[in-house]
Amino acid sequence: MTTEALAAAGGGAAPGPDASAPAPPPGARQVWRRLRAQRAAVAGGAVIVLFVLVAAAAPLLAALEGQDTTSYHAALVDSASGGVPLGTFGGVSPHHWLGVEPGTGRDMFARLAYGARVSLIVALGATVLQVLFGVLFGLLAGLGRRFVDGLLSRITDVFVIMPALVFAIALLAVVPSGFPRPVLLMLVLGLLAWGGIAKIVRAQVLTLKSLDYVAASRLAGSSGWRTARRELLPALVAPVLTYAAILLPSNIVSEAGLSFLGIGVTPPTPSWGQMLSSATTWYQADSAYVLLPSALLFATTLAFTVFADGVRTALDPRAASRLRIGTGRRGRGRRKNGEDAR
């Protein structure tokens, strides 16, 4: 039931536009058009797609190179110098496109490709869990009575101020080694760092509850969850999606940091953070072993961060209009012509 119908039923005139009502969420085509107008976001998205394709096709790419992640090649490292790869730039050759790992001689390209798969899967799974728990707790707190809101808000505050990495280190240290580490990392990161998105969702729900169309839905007899599903969740898509895009690169860095500390992904499963951890003793003898995983980690994090900023701008009509009016030669030309006409 719309606000006009309610006004007609009560015998009054239909209310005018509500100045406090948020702008309707943009359609998919409109968001895509705004996103394409941002070159940095498009470049970041292209890098993300490239890394996703590499991660998905890691077995195929490794087979194309003719290598795998576990085979040792002792003949390709110099045992007299402690295991430094023979050849230039870490032993790059037609059979080993990015060289070999110091000490073991394992193929670097195959390990980096499989490492991308582990890092992206862990980060994506943790982000999905954070969004699910954050939206659930935020909705319950925003729609609940004062006692429920206060209780859930205090629980959320605990998770916000909690040093998630410290608790993750403690949990990962006591869990049996037989439990799959990528799944464990996904669960730990996802279940400990959802507080921020819960607070954002709660604040949005409290704002939306006071608007006319939400009140009309409740007066029409809709239950709280029906109102949340039909009226509130569509309005929460933009802020939740924006925050999720920011969380994902943070989770990539967290996974790499835990693996770097030696409590994340365990050998022989490859991970960029794990490779950086073992590379600390080789940074002088074989700089490629340090540069390759760190450069990939930096590029992935930067691409996700830039793309997240582009998504935020595309989903925010005010930011998109400022970009459209305030930048570009065409916009400057229009302003100049308008000044000349005056």
From TrEMBL:
Membrane topology: Multi-pass membrane protein
Chief location bin: membrane
InterPro entries per UniProt: BP-dependent_transpt_permease, MetI-like, MetI-like_sf, OppC_N
Membrane-spanning intervals of the chain: 40-62, 118-143, 155-177, 183-201, 232-252, 288-308
Superkingdom of origin organism: Bacteria
PROSITE patterns cross-referenced by the UniProt entry: ABC_TM1
Family indicated by similarity: Belongs to the binding-protein-dependent transport system permease family.
Protein name: ABC transporter permease
Species this chain originates from: Actinacidiphila polyblastidii
